[in-house]
């Protein structure tokens, strides 16, 4: 009898496990999918039937940034799926609910952002959904806005939930210090952990030393009350790591905020957060020391917000090398053992993986000596952590011989810049003469993150490979520099509270193409069991970024957004600065399918299933900062 009971108990567990896996495959109810893996168990769409893949429907949001006086435009959202509905947010923070099989609009919500102010960000990467016991809105869509609000909306109607905060709204800009409206916002969807909403923030860079505090806060999903908060910068000597902020600089420094999506491990009651750089990004003389917990992967206790473990991946950041990606939760098979892992890719072009329980590196991290700073008042960290996994992007020192150009004059002007700039490879400190950053402050990898195929143990990341230039300018010299034209085409930031202005730009020629040899954007796959790069290919052609007279070379182009991996061994990705969506073979990087779109899809795709049919959905909206045509498209594809 005991054996029979055990048999039925095991059978029920296996059936339940299969059922839950099936539900997981059919639904994409959180940003990045389960664990932020950017992976779907769905396999109906495969290598053998891609010739039958076609557009199922097209939806236009209507948001093309009309009416905003001082806000750039982008469309970076990844939809989530529930109840045969896709939910997506736009650059103006509209939320739209769309029928997942027909593309018909079900409802929309507009938080009515002010249009006459400046905004440091244009992104809204998506929304979150929560289900629970509540008198109103038992299923809620949560939206973060560019002025720091969180809205709770009824998932069926789009009406604000009256019992959440103030009539459906909580102002997250309260309690973070003095706020410049439009400079403090929420660009990535919050994470859901039980009945809690875990919220980060985006803070405008390089304005000053004393900026808004980059706190992570847990809100009650029903009421909006704050359950706990965690500040990445320790504010008193009673806190751990306060000594890594010399001269009491932890008391005044701002930012170190968590602007990418967070991830949660409900079983372990852990929140995983990728923190950014402290303010300002390119000069740290007012915050000497390693500056923990900035530029770190941090595991927080989901009930209290207490730090469980942390790994700093950039010491004393003076390059804007935020940890930009959502932590990816998976199981890695290393030396024959399956281990619970959390992975991140970085702007430095490195991939790191840690044990979820302890934070122990699963691949060795090596502290290597890096160039010192020659800027008065600055003291760069003498070493930086390097992953023992192969770098995803170039990190080398660049010389005149590395200059690239379509024409001879173009190449010569690029070489002249390299001749006069400081260039000693990755982590070359910003300087008064000017420094070549390789990788640039945009990466390497950025918010597109790393996707993982847990069965094949293959990780895939979109990687930029285009350097940038950075200069620090003494305050009394800025006017003269502007007058002689040496700062034409540079972005200049004030860095109030420091002795220097900062100027930076992407390293482009007069034709608008990078000054270093291609590829300028890549798709890279890592075999996580072997710890080796499996393949590395250019991503995108120069068709939409080069002058019309230049041939359409397949040189790879920079971009933003990440890949979607499928159980059938496919990689679906837009991400490049080109009006194209592509599908590759996960095993070897071969391009299997592509389609021209009305706008560039600089966002990450997702997949869902309805009535036995698999769909792939993504947005195509271009990006002002890449000089790409605006679009407002939500597109869904399926087999004929």
Describe the structure.
This protein has 640 residues and is mainly beta. It has one domain (2-639): Methanol Dehydrogenase, Chain A (8 Propeller), CATH 2.140.10. Helices cover 7% and strands 32% of the residues. It has three helices and 40 strands. Strands 1-34-35-36-37 form a five-stranded mixed β-sheet, with no helix packed on it. The protein has a four-stranded antiparallel β-sheet with strand order 2-40-39-38, with no helix packed on it. Strands 3-4-5-6 form a four-stranded antiparallel β-sheet, with no helix packed on it. A hairpin with a 2-residue loop joins strand 3 and strand 4 (85-89). The N and C termini lie far apart (52 Å). Mean pLDDT is 94; it is low at 1-25.
Oligomer: single chain
Average pLDDT confidence is 94
Give the low-pLDDT segments. 1-25
**What profile does the largest beta sheet have?**
5 strands, mixed
How far is the N terminus from the C terminus?
Answer: 52 Å
Say what the CATH topology is: Methanol Dehydrogenase, Chain A
Number of helices: 3
Structural class: mainly beta
CATH classification class: Mainly Beta
Could you estimate the helical fraction of the residues in percent?
under 10%
CATH level-4 homologous superfamily: Quinoprotein alcohol dehydrogenase-like superfamily
Shape: globular
Number of domains: 1
CATH architecture: 8 Propeller
Strand order of the largest sheet: 1-34-35-36-37
Total beta-strand segments: 40
Radius of gyration: 24 Å
Classify the beta-strand content into a percent band.
25-35%
């Amino acid at each position: 009898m005991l054996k029979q009971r055990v048999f039925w108990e095991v059978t029920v567990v296996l059936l339940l496990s299969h059922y839950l896996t099936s539900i997981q495959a059919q639904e994409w109810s959180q940003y990045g999918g389960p664990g932020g893996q950017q992976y779907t168990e769905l396999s109906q769409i495969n290598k053998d039937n891609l010739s039958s893949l076609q557009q199922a429907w097209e939806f236009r949001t209507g948001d093309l940034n009309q009416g905003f006086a001082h806000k750039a435009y982008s469309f970076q959202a990844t939809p989530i799926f529930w109840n045969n509905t896709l939910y997506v947010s736009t650059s103006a923070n509209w939320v739209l609910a769309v029928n997942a099989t027909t593309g018909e609009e079900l409802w929309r919500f507009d938080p009515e952002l002010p249009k006459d102010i400046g905004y440091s960000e244009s992104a809204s990467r998506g929304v979150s959904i929560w289900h629970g016991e509540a008198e109103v809105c038992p299923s809620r869509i949560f939206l973060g806005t560019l002025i720091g609000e969180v809205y709770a909306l009824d998932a069926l109607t789009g009406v604000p939930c009256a019992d959440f905060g103030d009539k459906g709204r909580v102002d997250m800009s309260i309690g973070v210090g003095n706020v410049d409206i439009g400079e403090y916002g929420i660009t990535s969807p919050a994470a859901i952990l039980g009945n809690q909403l875990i919220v980060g923030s985006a803070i405008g860079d390089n304005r000053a030393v004393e900026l808004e505090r980059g706190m992570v806060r847990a809100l009650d999903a029903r009421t909006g009350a704050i359950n706990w908060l965690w500040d990445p910068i320790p504010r008193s000597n009673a806190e751990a790591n306060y000594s890594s902020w010399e001269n009491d600089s932890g008391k005044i420094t701002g930012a170190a905020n968590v602007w990418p999506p967070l991830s949660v491990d409900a079983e372990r009651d852990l929140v995983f957060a990728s923190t950014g750089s402290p303010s300002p990004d390119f000069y740290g003389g007012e915050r000497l020391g390693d500056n923990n917990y900035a530029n770190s992967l941090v595991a927080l206790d989901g009930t209290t917000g207490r730090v469980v473990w942390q790994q700093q991946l950039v010491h004393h950041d003076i390059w804007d090398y935020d940890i930009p990606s959502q932590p990816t939760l998976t199981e890695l098979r290393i030396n024959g053992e399956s281990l619970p892992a959390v992975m991140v890719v970085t702007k430095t072009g490195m991939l790191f993986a840690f044990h979820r329980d302890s934070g122990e590196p699963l691949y060795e991290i090596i502290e290597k000596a890096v160039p010192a700073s020659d800027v008065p008042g600055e003291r760069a960290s003498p070493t930086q952590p390097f992953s023992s996994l192969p770098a995803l992007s170039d990190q080398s020192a660049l010389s005149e011989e590395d200059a690239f150009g379509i024409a001879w004059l173009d190449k010569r002007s690029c070489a002249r810049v390299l001749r006069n700039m400081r260039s000693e490879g990755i982590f070359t400190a910003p300087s008064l003469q000017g420094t070549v950053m390789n990788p640039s402050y945009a990466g390497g990898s950025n918010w597109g993150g790393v996707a993982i195929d847990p069965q094949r143990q293959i990780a895939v990341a979109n990687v930029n490979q285009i350097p940038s230039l950075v200069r620090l300018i003494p305050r009394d010299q800025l006017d003269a520099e502007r007058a002689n034209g040496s700062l034409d085409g540079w972005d200049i930031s004030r860095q109030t509270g420091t002795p220097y202005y900062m100027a930076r730009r992407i390293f482009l020629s007069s034709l608008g193409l990078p000054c270093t040899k291609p590829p300028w954007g890549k798709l890279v796959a890592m075999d996580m069991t072997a710890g080796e790069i499996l393949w590395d290919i250019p991503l995108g052609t120069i068709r939409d970024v080069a002058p019309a007279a230049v041939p359409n070379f397949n040189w790879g182009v920079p971009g933003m957004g990440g890949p979607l991996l499928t159980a059938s061994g496919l990689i679906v990705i837009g991400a490049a600065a080109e009006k194209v969506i592509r599908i590759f073979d996960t095993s070897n990087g071969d391009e299997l399918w592509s389609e021209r779109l009305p706008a560039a899809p600089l966002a990450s795709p997702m997949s869902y299933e309805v009535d036995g049919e698999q769909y792939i959905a993504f947005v195509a909206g271009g990006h002002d900062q890449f000089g790409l045509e605006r679009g407002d498209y939500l597109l869904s594809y399926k087999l004929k």
